[in-house]
């Protein structure tokens, strides 16, 4: 992904809707402007839609000093690139995301989270495909006025996202257990 960057994702999306490719992400044209306007929203939406391993980060949170009005004892500032909470430490801590804060009862909090990943060189190939499909679906109606095209792209996006979740789930498993049934595990010890 490092070689082509954003222009690669933009042009994949434009290919899906039958538009001419851009030569530069900063190109001065109405089409390029529509792509650039849609991109930040699409990027963040797709990143939030799944716990993409390439977009995961961990951090210890810093208390804000203000006490929530009710319900929780502490308020923590979330990182500026925060998009989605994955897990907390202590594990299972009662907490709630409200705006740019995490409210909790724990005196110290660390989190794993999905971050806003702006460098396309860091994107997983499946993430690139999902982003291109979602961007294409976002741009499609203005380009073709075809609701069928928009619906088809949304369906392809949903399928690709489902496949990506499946692959990521496999990556999370212990590779030593692949292909071992319960019977084999009992037999082999």
In short:
By secondary structure, the chain is α+β, with helices and mostly antiparallel strands. The chain is built from 5 helices and 7 strands; from the N terminus they run H-H-E-E-E-E-E-E-E-H-H-H. The radius of gyration is 21 Å and the shape is elongated.
Class from helix and strand fractions: alpha+beta
Helix tally equals 5
Helix content: 40-55%
- Name the overall outline: elongated
Number of strands: 7
Q: Quick check: average pLDDT? A: 90
Instruction: Give the DSSP E fraction (strand runs of 2 or more residues).
Output: 15-25%
In terms of per-residue confidence, which ranges show pLDDT below 50 for 5 or more consecutive residues? Answer: none
How much is the radius of gyration in Å?
21 Å
Largest sheet: 4 strands, antiparallel
- Strand arrangement in the largest pleated sheet: 2-3-6-5
Topology at a glance:
Blueprint: H1 5-16, H2 30-48, E1 56-60, E2 62-63, E3 74-77, E4 82-89, E5 95-98, E6 101-104, E7 110-115, H3 125-144, H4 147-172, H5 182-188
Antiparallel strand pairs: 1-7, 2-3, 3-6, 4-7, 5-6
Helix pairs in contact: 1-3, 2-3, 3-4
Structure commentary:
By secondary structure, the chain is α+β, with helices and mostly antiparallel strands. It has two domains: 5-51 and 121-170; 54-116, no CATH class. It is 44% helix and 17% strand. It is built from five helices and seven strands, in the order H-H-E-E-E-E-E-E-E-H-H-H. The chain has helices at residues 5-16, 30-48, 125-144, 147-172, 182-188, and strands at residues 56-60, 62-63, 74-77, 82-89, 95-98, 101-104, 110-115. Strand 5 (95-98) and strand 6 form a beta hairpin. The N and C termini lie far apart (43 Å).
């Amino acid at each position: 992904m490092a070689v082509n960057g954003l222009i690669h994702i933009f042009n994949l999306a434009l290919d899906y809707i039958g538009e001419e490719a851009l030569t530069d992400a900063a190109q001065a044209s109405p089409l390029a402007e529509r792509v650039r306007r849609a991109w930040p929203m699409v990027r963040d939406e797709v990143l939030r839609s799944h716990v993409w391993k390439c977009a995961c980060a961990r951090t210890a949170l810093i208390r804000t000093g203000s006490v929530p009005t009710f319900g929780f004892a502490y308020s923590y500032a979330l990182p500026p690139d925060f998009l989605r909470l994955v897990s907390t430490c202590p594990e299972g801590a009662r907490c709630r995301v409200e705006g740019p804060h995490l409210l909790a009862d724990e005196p110290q909090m660390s989190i794993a989270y999905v971050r806003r990943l702006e460098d396309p060189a860091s994107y997983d190939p499946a993430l690139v495909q999902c982003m291109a499909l979602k961007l294409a679906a976002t741009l499609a109606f203005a380009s073709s006025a075809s609701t069928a095209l928009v619906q088809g792209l949304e369906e392809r996006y949903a399928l690709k996202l489902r496949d990506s979740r499946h692959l990521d789930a496999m990556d999370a498993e212990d590779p030593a257990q692949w292909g071992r049934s319960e019977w084999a595990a009992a037999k082999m010890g």
